[in-house]
Design goal:
This protein is mostly beta strands and 123 residues long. The protein is built from no helices and eleven strands. The chain is globular, with a radius of gyration of 13 Å.
């Protein structure tokens, strides 16, 4: 069945960088938008970044603009999130998601989600 698997998380000092990967199996998302979301303890899940099916359109939360870059390699059925200049407030579990329907949006309630990968940024 459809599975999304995130990887690349870890612990890094403030100002450091990480690259997260989201790999899909069982179904291609080359024709679908993919998003990254995160959830910190005690907080609601929040949108981080989204990329359109062809990779030409990207959208970021204000909190990560200029620091994070979303990209995709449809040949590998993989979406990436390059995170630079990390801050302690970026600490969260990061999830990727796709509803495998829309080329431009991800509807969270209809989406398939990965298991998440922990990102911890220390001061």
């Amino acid at each position: 069945q459809v599975q999304l698997v995130e990887s690349g998380g870890g612990e890094v000092q403030a100002g450091g960088s990480l690259r997260l990967s989201c790999a899909a199996s069982g179904r291609t998302f080359s024709s679908s938008a993919v998003g990254w979301f995160r959830q910190a303890p005690g907080k609601e899940r929040e949108f981080v970044a989204r990329i359109s099916c062809g990779g030409r359109l990207t959208y970021y939360a204000d909190s990560v603009k200029g620091r994070f870059t979303i990209s995709r390699d449809n040949a590998k059925n993989t979406v990436y999130l390059q995170m630079n200049s990390l801050k302690p407030e970026d600490t969260a579990v990061y999830y990727c998601a796709s509803d495998f329907k829309s080329c431009t949006i991800v509807a969270p309630r209809d989406a398939y989600w990965g298991q998440g990968t922990q990102v911890t940024v220390s001061s």
